[in-house]
Design goal:
The complex is a heterotrimer of chains A (291), B (527) and C (311). Chain A contains 13 helices and no strands. With 291 residues, chain A is mainly alpha-helical. Chain A has a single domain, classed as MetI-like fold, CATH 1.10.3720. The chains are: A mainly alpha (291), B alpha+beta (527), C mainly alpha (311). Chains in contact: A-B, A-C, B-C.
């Protein structure tokens, strides 16, 4: 890579950063996310209570000085469970999303770019995965291997890459035939180089959107698994199993579901706003004259 | 007589008083009214075939079919059903059933002894898988004496036989089924499209996945039902059931204690607490060397805060359990056994004495084996709550306790493996109203999922089964309860009440759990 | 085109075979067995007899081949617990699921696409922010909680709609029962469609030909309708295509909460009770539906985007 090329490379990323910093929503979302992750990481400093210590005599208490967010149906401190549960839920969300996006991008771009039998095989695998009753897949795998956090992450990643794959493939099919790509090909660039230099950067924005959606949906999938009895094993908290166990108390103690529900909402919102900001910053075409 | 006997008596008194008051207050207006539809939720589509189990199936079958024996709606004593009365020979080897005359199948054909003999043949046919086969395992042969008398010859005496016959053992119509092969009898698809019984309600309509509608059998031998129709609606989610009762879509639902606060003061609804033959306990696997040690089992029992489980999880809707025999079977129950009142210090002392000493990490160990085990639990909130309390309680006395979450199906499979594949798990047991618990405690029995083996218990169980005289039987079962408690074979928690959320318009429900009480569905009426 | 469709259908047959093998392997691998074997009163002998009767004592590959042979002859087997042929059970449930899916997708598309477009065109306005907030809320709300909440409000408090179930006696009754589950299921999908419509609309709005059209003075609404929407709709079609199978299989929880007699609820109970013939049957039927949906979506691509061609 010669100097001129390196300089040209550097400038867009700096421009992207500038563009990102101009987007107030995205910056706010980033700050919220940093705070959120810092809070769950510093859980022991923020609450004296253990998330697992139960006291049936103090069940379903409303917020008080001792228990800032009240107690749940087993008399456990909700703030402590929210913070420690955040570690689990955010961890599951990020890890599962990372796995799904990596797998989906890889397979989707391979299918779209290579076409032919590679495309056919990959897309049929995608179809097969999508036509599978995923519930049954999750049930069986988790029943077989146990509902450990690692297993939950793995099954969510393995069952949620298909969306990314299909979107990436669609983008690749669309971009592949555009003039600049054909030009690059005509100039003798290797397919791999074209893929990485021209095709992938252009679908980055779609992938980023999928990825940020993915964090939230992985957190939600964990809560759905809790509803079906296959979520994070007690006594460990997760936002999902907090929501589920609070569900039956919805009539009398709505704060049990309110707090974990709000955390999931804030997380989903912040990740998506961040995703929007990143997409605008990374995809010059979409923001050239946006404001 | 223990507290529960008193309680039950009190309950009956209250019931009678309420009935009297009701009568006095509303006079003739309170006489049972005819008409109306009663709607009850079930968890799944019922096949309506009594040869198969499943609570959603059993409940519907109770209305379509009859049994030879029924349980009294208050005392649960066996009383006449399709058999008006019966007698047993001195040696306990022959039961003679005198059948009710004039009973008709829903298609108008008369019911007689041939139907009973045929049904026994189906029950005993090894080619037909039958979930209650164990109940007829001692039957030798069935003899039809005349069109309304049947004699059942036993290979060995089974004192609980009449009670067992009342336990969902529905009599089938010979004229509709006799031409079927064994394989077809396992699942008679065509018959089940329009099943025929002698029960108080006739099959009306089935919308798969949605509901089954039964209509009143106006010619029912015990009097026509007050209701016009009885609808079972498939509603798998209990929270949805609670919402539907409140919305008026259902007339009754069996609820969990944690729903109580929400529904206690809803106008138009009432909460009924009904006793049932059921107990909750923590199963222990004696094949695990830790639990083979009686001192450990006793210590775990002392360390368990049952009262906080009853108050905190069951919200008082249960009574502490002393053994596997329900106080509802009052003649056989005894509270005169070792009772494990919450006493963590005593638990620690027992473990110390038995050589289980705390290691450097605070976990007790003996001969290099750590006091470490896993509670397997299914996702039900109450059973999960029990596991959490037990974990907390037992950690305090120096045990390392993990919790693992499994589907109930997997828990059952692990429990039924030989040897059982689990350490401990919270479970419950619904039995017929008879003290014969040999299925669950006799060494090597399929229901003995604890690998529990005590030759003395085996001997007594055998004896109790063969003894016809009730007083003698009572003494035997008292002794069994004492041994099981002393042994801390499993950890008995509580006898739960059935909590039902009922629409105020509904009257005449049997005061016992609906699993047994629905046999009296023809007495239910609506205002 | 015809050749392409035939090719895809042939692939579909192979795909179905693969899906059925995987499902069968999972069934065999899963712990727990048919619930009917575990009644506490069933003796070990009795359990063995039932296993033999159901053919579960045979080696796995024999069981699979036997199942396959029956399927080729058009027999999906008999449910262990429902006592009915699987084909009949599915025939009862499929219409309910298709009704719910159709209604929820209709709800999602009817609201999602206009909201997404509006959001993109009025980018960064308060409308955009409101739409964004609503769609994120839709995405972050767990169905089991949202469903119960709506039921409490609309059925228990206000008594406007039935609290779950399905009664198809009259059209009015069917629609009444349909509203809540369709809205619950549709909300999540609406949120997704809104987001994707907004994103793809934004990227199209900035492409050269749109700007050219604008520069040439073509009326704004005309630009939107003619050029932008047609190009933006492509990724949206992808998303809807993705939703179809999700709605066919993924509504298990909604169906459970609303006691909706559909395929999702059937799959849940079959999985819990290890009703093997039903699990296999449901998987097979759902796969066929999904494969057909995917085929239609891919054909729509060709129609909507002339640049995409299949050989």
């Amino acid at each position: 890579m010669d100097n001129a090329e390196a300089a040209a490379e550097q400038q867009p990323s700096r421009r992207a950063l500038r563009r990102f910093l101009r987007n107030r929503m995205a910056v706010a979302a980033l700050v919220v996310l940093i705070l959120l992750h810092a809070a769950v990481a510093a859980a022991p400093l923020l609450t004296p209570h253990s998330p697992e210590a139960l006291n049936l005599l103090k069940r379903l208490r409303p917020p008080s000085a001792d228990h800032l967010l009240g107690t749940d149906e087993m008399g456990r401190d909700i703030l402590a469970r929210l913070l420690y549960g955040g570690r689990v839920s955010l961890g599951i969300g990020l890890a599962a999303m990372g796995g799904a996006v990596a797998l989906g991008t890889l397979l989707g771009s391979a299918a779209g770019f290579r076409g032919g039998w590679v495309d056919a095989i990959i897309m049929r695998i995608t179809d097969a995965m999508m036509s599978f009753p995923l519930f049954f897949f999750l049930l069986t795998v988790l029943a077989l291997l146990g509902s450990s956090i690692a297993n939950i992450v793995a099954v969510i990643a393995l069952t949620s890459w298909m969306n990314v794959a299909r979107i990436v493939r669609a983008e690749v099919l669309r971009i592949k035939q555009m003039q600049f790509v054909e030009a690059a090909r005509a100039l003798g660039s290797s397919p791999l180089r074209v893929l990485f230099r021209h095709v992938l950067p252009h679908c980055l924005s779609s992938v980023v959107v999928s990825a940020t959606l993915g964090v939230g949906s992985a957190i939600l999938t964990e809560s759905a698994l809790s509803y079906l009895g296959l979520g994070v094993t007690p006594p460990a908290p997760s936002w999902g199993n907090m929501l589920n166990s609070g569900r039956s108390h919805i009539w009398t103690a709505p704060h049990l579901v309110l707090f974990p529900g709000a955390m999931i909402f804030i997380t989903v919102l912040a990740y998506n706003a961040l995703g929007d900001g990143l997409r605008d910053a990374l995809d010059p075409a979409s923001s050239r004259d946006s404001r | 007589m223990g507290w529960f006997g008193n309680r039950k008596r009190a309950l009956i008194l209250v019931w009678a008083a309420a009935a009297l008051l009701g009568l006095a207050a509303a006079a003739a207006a309170q006489a049972p009214q005819r008409g109306g539809t009663f709607t009850l939720p079930i968890s799944d589509d019922p096949p309506m075939w009594p040869i198969q189990g499943g609570i959603y199936n059993i409940l519907v079958n109770k209305l379509i079919y009859d049994t030879l024996v029924r349980y009294h709606p208050e005392t649960l004593e066996p009383v006449g059903g399709l058999a008006e009365r019966w007698e047993v020979s001195e040696d306990g080897l022959a039961y003679t059933f005198h059948l009710r005359q004039g009973v008709k199948w829903h298609d108008g054909e008369p019911f007689d002894a041939e139907d009973v003999a045929f049904t026994f043949q189906v029950w005993m046919n090894p080619e037909v898988p039958y979930y209650l086969r164990a109940n007829v395992s001692s039957v030798d042969r069935v003899e039809v004496l005349d069109p309304y008398t049947v004699r059942v010859h036993m290979k060995n005496p089974v004192a609980s036989f009449p009670v067992l016959l009342g336990y969902n053992m529905s009599i089938l119509p010979k004229h509709r089924l006799e031409h079927l092969s064994a394989a077809q009898l396992a699942n008679p698809v065509e018959f089940l499209r329009n099943p025929i019984g002698t029960g108080p309600f006739k099959f009306g309509q089935k919308v798969p996945g949605s509901m089954v509608r039964l209509v009143a059998n106006e010619e029912y031998w015990d009097g026509a039902p007050y209701l016009d129709a009885f609808v079972f609606r498939v509603v798998p989610d209990v929270d949805t059931q609670v919402a539907q009762v409140q919305a008026g879509d259902l007339d009754m639902a069996i609820i969990e204690p944690y729903h109580l606060d929400a529904v206690r003061n809803v106008p138009g609804l009432r909460i009924e607490e009904a006793p049932q033959v059921n107990h909750f306990y923590i199963m222990l696997n004696h094949a695990n060397p830790i639990f083979a040690d009686r001192a450990v089992r006793q210590a775990l029992s002392y360390a368990l805060d049952r009262q906080s489980i009853i108050d905190g999880l069951m919200l008082g809707m249960a009574q502490p359990a002393t053994g596997p025999i329900s106080p509802l079977i009052s003649w056989a129950y005894t509270a005169d056994v070792v009772q494990y009142h919450y006493d963590p210090e005593k638990a620690e002392r027992l473990l110390d004495e038995a050589g289980w000493l705390r290691g450097p990490d605070g976990i007790r160990q003996k001969d290099g084996r750590r006091l470490s085990f896993t509670i397997d639990v299914d996702p039900h909130p109450i059973r999960q709550g029990i596991a959490l309390v037990a974990q907390e309680n037992w950690r305090r006395i120096g045990a390392e306790v993990n919790i693992a979450l499994y589907e109930y199906n997997v828990i059952l499979q692990n429990a039924r493996s030989q040897p059982p594949k689990y350490d401990a798990n919270p479970n419950w047991l619904v039995t017929p109203p008879d003290p014969d618990i040999s299925t669950y405690y006799a060494g090597g029995s399929p229901g003995n999922t604890y690998a529990y083996a005590n030759p003395e218990v085996d001997r007594l169980l055998e004896l109790g089964r063969a003894t016809v005289n009730q007083e003698e039987r009572a003494r035997i079962y008292h002794e069994i309860q004492r041994i099981l408690a002393e042994d801390a074979a499993v950890l008995y928690l509580y006898y739960p009440s059935e909590i039902r959320l009922v629409n105020d318009r509904v009257q005449g429900l049997a005061p016992v759990g609906y699993r047994d009480g629905l046999a009296w569905a023809h007495k239910i009426w609506k205002q | 085109m015809g050749k392409y469709v035939v090719g895809r259908l042939l692939q579909a047959v192979v795909l179905l075979a693969v899906v059925s093998v995987i499902t069968f392997a999972l069934i065999m691998a899963a712990p727990g067995g048919p619930a009917i074997l575990y009644d506490p009163s069933i003796t070990a002998d009795e359990a063995e007899r039932i296993r033999a009767l159901l053919g579960l004592d045979q080696p796995a590959h024999i069981q699979y081949l036997r199942w396959l042979g029956n399927v080729i002859r058009g027999d999906l087997g008999t449910s262990y617990t429902l006592g009915l042929p699987v084909a009949e059970v599915i025939a009862h449930r499929l219409p309910a699921t298709l009704l719910l899916s159709g209604a929820s997708i209709l709800f999602a598309v009817a609201l999602g696409i206009p909201l997404g477009m509006l959001s993109a065109v009025r980018r960064n306005s308060w409308i955009d922010n409101a739409v964004t907030a609503i769609s994120f809320m839709g995405m972050s709300i767990p169905v089991f909680w949202y469903g119960l909440m709506l039921m409490i409000l609309f059925s228990v408090r206000w008594r406007l709609l039935p609290a779950g179930g399905l009664e198809t006696d009259t059209v009015a009754s069917t629609l009444k029962h349909l509203v809540l589950p369709a809205v619950v299921l549709g909300t999540v999908h609406m949120a997704e469609i809104t987001r994707y419509t907004r994103a793809s609309m934004l990227s199209v709005l900035h492409q050269d030909y749109i700007r050219t059209a604008r520069a040439k003075g073509v009326k704004e609404t005309w630009v939107l309708a003619k050029h932008a929407l047609k190009n933006a709709i492509l990724p949206v079609v992808t998303v809807i295509g993705l939703l179809l199978p999700k709605v066919a299989t993924g509504s298990a929880i909604t169906e459970q909460v609303f006691a909706w007699p559909g395929m999702g609820q059937l799959a849940v109970r079959a999985a819990y009770q290890r009703d093997y013939p039903v699990i296999m049957g449901v998987t097979l039927v759902v796969s066929v539906v999904v494969i057909l949906c995917n085929l239609v979506v891919d054909l729509l691509y060709v129609y909507l985007d002339p640049r995409v061609r299949y050989e």
